[in-house]
């Protein structure tokens, strides 16, 4: 889901149960085109692995491919730095700071036990 304005993103968030709002903030990111994208599909299962640890690649038409054999139970990793423009949407960063404190990195309210 793509959001161009703070108002549209907040309207989406307030429709969710409070404990899910934190997860949605974790699944949201700002690509280079200065919008906010919330991954509510299979992409929310892909984690950041950095340039050297990523085991998937991204094809032109929105599909992923395995860069090597991925073992059962192995984490699927991509390099978020390829397409995320950190701190590029001021209103989104403000929402995150307000939700998680001044560092913007707290995840206490998340339903994901790995992030709590």
Describe the protein.
With 116 residues, the protein is of the alpha+beta class. The chain has 4 helices and 7 strands, in the order E-H-H-E-E-E-H-E-E-E-H. The protein has helices at residues 6-14, 18-27, 50-53, 90-100, and strands spanning 2-3, 28-29, 36-38, 47-48, 56-58, 64-66, 77-78. Strand 5 and strand 6 (64-66) form a beta hairpin. The chain starts with a strand and ends in a 16-residue tail after the last helix. The relative contact order is 0.22. The model is unreliable at 103-116 (pLDDT under 50).
Topology:
Blueprint: E1 2-3, H1 6-14, H2 18-27, E2 28-29, E3 36-38, E4 47-48, H3 50-53, E5 56-58, E6 64-66, E7 77-78, H4 90-100
Parallel strand pairs: 4-7
Antiparallel strand pairs: 1-3, 2-3, 5-6
Described by strand count, sense and barrel closure, the largest sheet is: 3 strands, antiparallel
Oligomer: single chain
Percent in helix: 25-40%
What is the beta-strand fraction? 5-15%
**How many β-strand stretches?**
7
- Spatial gap, N to C terminus: 24 Å
* Shape call: globular
